[in-house]
Amino acid sequence: MVYRRAALAALVAAAAALNAAAGPAADAPAPAPLPAEQAPLAAHALLIALAPAGGRLVAVGDRGVIVYSDDRGSSWTQAASVPVQALLTGVCFFDERRGVAVGHDEAILATSDAGVHWRLVHHAPEAQRPLLDVWCGANGAAIAVGAYSTYLTSADGGATWSAPPFAPIPRARPAGAARAAASGAAEEAAGGGYHLNRIVGGPGARLYIAGEAGHLYRSDDAGSGWRELASPYTGSFFDVLPLGGEALLASGMRGNLYRSEDGGASWRRLETGTVEMLDGAARLPGGTVAVVGLAGVVLVSRDGGESFTLEQQSDRSGLAAALAAGPGALAVVGEDGARTIPLGTGATAAGAAQ
Description:
Blueprint: H1 2-12, E1 47-53, E2 56-61, E3 66-69, E4 77-78, E5 88-93, E6 99-103, E7 107-111, E8 119-122, E9 131-136, E10 142-146, E11 151-154, H2 175-191, E12 196-201, E13 207-211, E14 216-219, E15 227-228, E16 237-244, E17 247-252, E18 257-260, E19 268-270, E20 278-283, E21 289-293, E22 298-301, E23 309-310, E24 319-324, E25 329-334, E26 337-342, E27 351-352
Antiparallel strand pairs: 1-2, 2-3, 3-4, 5-6, 6-7, 7-8, 9-10, 10-11, 12-13, 13-14, 14-15, 16-17, 17-18, 18-19, 20-21, 21-22, 22-23, 24-25, 25-26, 26-27
């Protein structure tokens, strides 16, 4: 259990290329990837990301496992074919059928049947730059982000991908801090860039990226240009949750949760009652907001994200992502797979994966 929990933290934190030392030389041809194996307990595998495909939920995770649910998380079915065994870390859908999943080995998969069958459209294990999340937008636009500021874009529904430079406009800093920022930028360039952990859509054409070492970014034009936001602390962020209008939450290491009322220009810290890593968040019907994390942490707000109550799950199983499964329930994925959690109980979910 300790190993799996540590692994979940490392993956979401973009501790990239778990097997880099044993990987092939940069000039050696990459071996053909093996397809994911069918497993009776696939829904109980380590799962990292979760996305809606119309009324269906689709989750991705360890060794190429992809599962889907047509009953809001009560039961799950493994995808019929996935062409890789790489760890999958992000998934999104353009509509109820067309979607994209990303993961280690710079793998990008596409589906046109709501996640039942997948095809490999991009694969670059020699780069040793795992992808960590993906966003699907309008008219087939998609952006995949990952370790060392990896940034890939598609304009055709994920069929083909390009790699424009990720060059956000730096935020304004006082004179003294500017020198330190310049030094940090030089170090970033030498090390290949900060890890980009999560990309999410906001209102209109707005996008946000949560990154390593306190880095937050915002685009107001669907990713054509980016700018760095003011950051309330120097630890890594793992999720951003737009709340409507200019309000949003940013969550990260050691129970740090911040709220902004102005699109990320300024922040205030919210009390969480935990020091566990927070790595997923969701809005539910009726204004309820939930944030999940390691050690079974579930933070619940019933005032639109102004304040939160800790509902620690008794099994303390690490949680990586969440979506609404109804007015008072979350569909979640994490180190023990996919399940549902009824809010307001503070107990382990009754609706475990089947």
